[in-house]
Write a structure and sequence with these properties.
Elements lengths: L1 H19 L4 H11 L12 H17 L2 E2 L6 E7 L9 E11 L6 E7 L24 H20 L7 E7 L7 H8 L8 E7 L11 E4 L7 H5 L8 E4 L8 H5 L5 E5 L18 H18 L12
Parallel strand pairs: 4-5, 4-6, 6-9, 7-8
Antiparallel strand pairs: 1-3, 2-3, 3-5, 7-9
Length: about 300
């Protein structure tokens, strides 16, 4: 009887741990619906709501047990400037939120996504000529990427494994003002850039189009990526592009000779418009995209220090 009870307890522990470590669609929904709610008013750089989004990411990192790796706790604070339009408050304070999973490894894989968006369209970049003053919720751009960042952080913090390399999770601020947060980090790194194995960036991964598939950009930035992608399986379509720079925060790492991958589901009619809302996200596909990323990260742990190839 005691043996049966011990077996049941052990089974329950294993099941509980296993269930914690899966990519969880409900968690993805929770994050996106929070970040892209009207109450967040589009998370414009320097706004109270952008700071609230940063607080949310920091709280999640702390809950997962990630070590703070900013310049002050989890925070790396910097200034960003609005350049596309003339505004009185053109210089704004922003933060990168940085959490570290220390596996005692020689090298570190960086996982990143930006959490800012366009606010109410007054900082420039709105694609809606009548959109100024309207909330741009940015569910795809880039609450979807932040949800992926948080879910991968939760997965690796609870999977019971000690990976060969460390993982550094960064939520970048002020991407919409010109990749400012990622540029600041790569110019003021909180760990040596030479210790970075490669960088994975997620920006707009929530509006999967089955006709096109998921773009995986940066495949040509290391000779190791073809090996890493061997055996990667998915129930959705994805395709690779070799160039490393352009469009999002992976560019800042690429310019420092670090291999990169950028996951992106492409443009759509709501891009940089007020209609980019949480209910339009394809949560099934988003979960599948993260499963691809998980496999790629896992496979990269088997590689020695990765070389860098200039592609652009």
């Amino acid at each position: 009887m005691r043996k049966i009870q011990a077996f049941l307890v052990l089974s329950l522990i294993v099941f509980s741990h296993f269930s914690q470590a899966q990519i969880d669609q409900d968690q993805l929904k929770k994050h996106i619906y929070y970040l892209a709610d009207d109450k967040m008013k589009g998370r414009g750089t320097g706004s109270r709501q952008a700071k609230k989004a940063a607080d949310y990411v920091e709280k999640e990192f702390r809950k997962y047990g990630l070590a703070p790796k900013g310049e002050k706790g989890y925070r790396q604070t910097f200034e960003a400037r609005v350049k596309r339009v003339v505004v009185k408050d053109s210089i704004r304070q922003a933060d990168n939120i940085i959490g570290f999973l220390d596996n005692g490894g020689r090298y570190t894989v960086v996982v990143g996504a930006h959490y800012d968006h366009l606010g109410e369209g007054r900082q420039g970049s709105s694609k809606d000529s009548l959109g100024v003053g309207k909330i741009h919720n940015g569910a795809d751009d880039n609450a979807s990427g932040v949800a992926g960042l948080l879910e991968l952080a939760r997965y690796y913090a609870t999977n019971g494994a000690t990976e060969k390399y460390n993982l550094l999770f960064i939520a970048f601020g002020a991407e919409e003002l010109g990749l400012v947060g990622s540029k600041y980090f790569t110019n003021h790194p909180t760990l040596p850039l030479a210790d970075i194995q490669w960088m994975l960036n997620m920006d707009m991964i929530g509006r999967y189009n089955p006709e096109n598939g998921v773009a995986v950009i940066g495949y040509g930035t290391s000779s190791k990526f073809p090996l890493i992608f061997e055996g990667v399986k998915s129930d959705i379509k994805f395709y690779t592009g070799k160039d490393g720079s352009g469009g999002s925060d992976q560019t800042s790492f690429y310019k420092k000779d670090i291999p990169v991958l950028f996951f992106h589901t492409g443009g759509h009619a709501d891009y940089h418009k007020p209609g980019d809302d949480a209910e339009k996200i394809d949560y099934n596909a988003l979960q599948s995209i993260l499963e691809i990323e998980r496999q790629v990260i896992d496979h990269s742990m088997d590689q020695p220090k990765m070389d860098f190839i200039l592609t652009n």
